[in-house]
Every structure is written in structure tokens, then in C-alpha cells.
Amino acid sequence: MFPTKARFVLSVVDHNAIELSPRISEAEVGDYIALLKPRVMSLVVFTALVGLIIAPGHFHPVLAFTSILCIAVGAGASGALNMAYEGDIDALMSRTANRPIPRGRITPPEATAFGITLAFFSVMTLGILVNWVAGGLLAFTIFFYVVIYTMLLKRWTAQNIVIGGAAGALPPVVAWAAATGSLSMEPVLLFLIIFFWTPPHFWALALFRSDDYARAGVPMLPVVAGPDATRLQILLYTVVLVAVAFAPWPLGYFDAVYGVTSLVLGAGMLALAINVYRRREGVAATRATRKLFAFSILYLFALFATLLLEVVVRAVAPAIGAVASAIG
To answer: Which of 5, 91, 232, 293 is deepest in the core (most CB within 10 A)?
Structure first.
């Protein structure tokens, strides 16, 4: 008999070539919309719209729409890149823990790719279809918010909001440049109003969210200098804000309706800032800061809405006059 031949099955596993299954994203459309920071975007769009409407000359409606859309998308790109970089601290703060990255719905690389794509197309579209002054300003705005504020300032200095606020103040300047191809004093005044509005607005938020910022290691002013020093800074910046916001009327840039509205709103803002300065403990202190924070949003919207109203009145007044003359 022939000997039985043993059969050996050799199994070779190359452990250096392990196949990784691709990650299946759990993100939905709503998660990507959240990356854009839609509430912040609404303020950006509104202030940019005001800058566009009050600019002199005729601007084609299609180009006007394109400009506002690009500014909005650029703002959304900034928000996405900000969240991509700050996913670690967002996870530690109750106010931001439900954002898509801390929840694991979107990864930081995905958010980064999304933000860079939006930034590129918003800047290029604005530059090519409208003008490169506006395109360049939009690119600088995104760079300032993402690199200067998010990466360099926010985690290193208590003045992060003061300096970084310049990025949030630029949209009306970008819009004015889109409409005119140049800059002038009016958009600079709008920039200054938003710039000096930003510290009291965000420091009011930081006062009743100071535990959040402390836990995340973000050196906001209440964490670094204390609540009382923050209250004083809020009051001082509010005084400057009220003066800067009122200045365009006596300087002859905006009309009396704006001037009177600025005084009334400024009086309310200043009264609430004084209240924050005086009430320093307990529920009363928290209530005072929350009231200032909420009113500051109304303040900025109402102030800029008044400028829109002035433009509408100036446009409609001749027609009303002509109708009245015809009837008479």
C-alpha cells in the first residue's frame, strides 16, 4: 500500500496589511447646518445687508444677492472651521456640548474639509462675480476669525473677544465694498459700532457662563480678572459704544431718525450696563447680566434696522410727494 500523504493547509496572514473599513458618517443635513452657526450667521447677514443697502449708487439685484450669499457662506465657513478646532473645549461646556463634533456626529477633519470648501468657493465667487476688493476683505475676515481669534487669541488672552471682535464687525464693510468697489467712512462707522458692541455683549454672556469657560480652560475676562473687573469693563465699553453709535448723526453721515433712535437705545443699553455693575451677587446679578445680553442683541438689530428704514423713507418720499402734487 502506498503511504497516505498528509495534506497541510498553510494559512498566511499579513498583519501589516490590515484592511480598515471606512467610517460611515452619522451626520445629517441638520448637523452640517449647525456647523455654520446659523444664529451668528443671521446677524452677519443682517449687518451686511445694511452695509449693502446704504451704499451709494445702483447695484444689480443679482450681484447684490450673490454678495450677501457669499458673505453668509463665508461666515458659515468660519463657524465650521472654528468648531473643527474647538471640538475639545466644546465637549467640556454645557452651552456647546450638543454641537455635532462633541456628539460624534461629525469628525474634526470632516468639519475642516467642509469649512475650507465653503471658504474657498465663497471668496472666489465674490471676487470673480462681484469684485476683488470685496473678495479680499471676505478672505481676510475668514482668516482673522479662524486663525487670529480661534487659534491664537481665544485660548491665550482675556482680550480675545476685544481683538477677535474685528472679524464680526467686518461684514458690512465687505458688503459696502461689494456694492462700490471701494471703502469710505460709513462702513468704517458701522465697523466701529459692532466692534465696541461685541465686548459688553459677550462679557455679559461670559458672566453667567463663567463656570463653563473655567472648566474648558478658556481665559475669558470673568475667569481671569474676576466678575467685578468684568462688570467695570462692560460699563466702560458700553459708554464708548453709545458715543460711537451716536456720532454718525452729528457728523452728518446718518439722519435724525437714526440719531434719536441711537440715543433711546443707547440709554437703555447704558442703564442695563449700570445695573450689571451695581448688582454683583445672587439671582439679581445673574438676572441683570441676562437682561443686558438679551437687550444687546435687540440694540444692534434695531440700530441697523433704523438705517434700513431711513433708506426706504428716502426712496419712497419723492413718490409720495409726486402723488400728493398730482392730487393737489
So the answer is: 293
Q: Whose grid coordinates read 452695509?
A: 51
At 33, list the grid cell. 447646518
pLDDT in tens, the chain (328 residues): 444 444 444 444 444 444 445 566 678 999 999 999 999 999 999 999 999 999 998 899 999 999 999 999 999 999 999 999 999 999 999 999 999 999 999 999 999 999 999 999 999 999 999 999 999 999 999 999 999 999 999 999 999 999 999 999 999 999 999 999 999 999 999 999 999 999 999 999 999 999 999 999 999 999 999 999 999 999 999 999 999 999 999 999 999 999 999 999 999 999 999 999 999 999 999 999 999 999 999 999 999 999 999 888 887 767 666 666 667 6
CA dihedral 112, 118, 122, 123 (to 10 degrees): 20
Between CA 161 and CA 196 the distance in angstroms is: 10
